[in-house]
Design goal:
It contains three helices and four strands. Strand 3 and strand 4 form a beta hairpin. The radius of gyration is 11 Å and the shape is globular. Strands 2-1-3-4 form a four-stranded mixed β-sheet, sandwiched between helices. The chain is α+β, with helices and mostly antiparallel strands. This is Glutaredoxin-like protein NrdH.
Length: 73
């Protein structure tokens, strides 16, 4: 499986739901806090997103809690 990165921030309900869904699928992922990591924040903006979570898997990425996308991994 390709590396999964979840761009998140503290207190984000959709971020927590995304990580719970990934955990249930047994997926390994890296979490990057956009409030603490300026490179992560800049990357999310470069991808064209203004809100988190942003999930990036290889060349694929999306924003928001997307159980359909997670199930398709």
């Amino acid at each position: 499986m390709q590396q999964i990165t979840v761009y998140s921030k503290p207190g984000c309900v959709q971020c927590q739901a995304t990580m719970r869904k990934l955990d249930k699928r047994g997926a390994a992922y890296e979490v990057r806090d956009v409030t603490q990591d300026q490179d992560a924040y800049a990357h999310v903006r470069e991808l064209g997103y203004q809100q988190v979570p942003v999930v990036e898997v290889g060349q694929q990425h999306w924003s928001g809690f997307r159980p359909d996308k997670i199930s398709g991994l």
